[in-house]
Amino acid sequence: SCAIFGGVIEGIIFETNSDRLTADSLDVLKGVADTLAQFPDLRVTIEAHTDNLGTAESNLSLSKRRAISVARYLVDAGISGPRLKPQAFGESMPRTSNATKEGRAANRRVEFSVI
Fold it and tell me: Which of 42, 62, 40 is nearest to 50 (CA)?
């Protein structure tokens, strides 16, 4: 029932070098909020990752702002804040090589895990 919260939620995209969610991302997050509303006992981590462009320090800061941005959206959608644990990983956990544009895009991601 909770397979949706077992890793990367595809389609959560931010504007370049920003924590501003794109319009398509808001649609994806609406689905996440709906699912969380159906399972009121679920608590999740919101794990934000970046590619390796820029400094590690700035990427960590960016991923922190992005995780908080996702959490803020979900709270605004009616999900209780204590159910959400934003976490920032910056560029420290790539899922593929940063050597290509496609790889960097895959590494810029938000993952949800059930606590």
Answer: 62
Q: Are 110 and 48 in contact (CB under 8 A)?
A: yes
pTM (predicted TM-score): 0.93
Listing from the earlier edge strand, what are the strands of the sheet with 6-8?
A: 6-8, 109-114, 44-49, 84-90
Cα gap 43→55, rounded to integer Å: 31
Q: What is the pLDDT of residues 17-70, one digit of tens each?
A: 999 999 999 999 999 999 999 999 999 999 999 999 999 999 999 999 999 999
CB under 8 Å to 1, separation ≥6 — which residues? Answer: 39
> Which element (helix H / strand E) includes 114?
strand 109-114
End-to-end Cα distance, the chain: 15
Please state whether beta strands 84-90 and 44-49 pair in parallel, antiparallel, or not at all (unpaired).
parallel
Closest CA to 73 of 27, 113, 114, 7: 27
3-state SS class at 14: strand
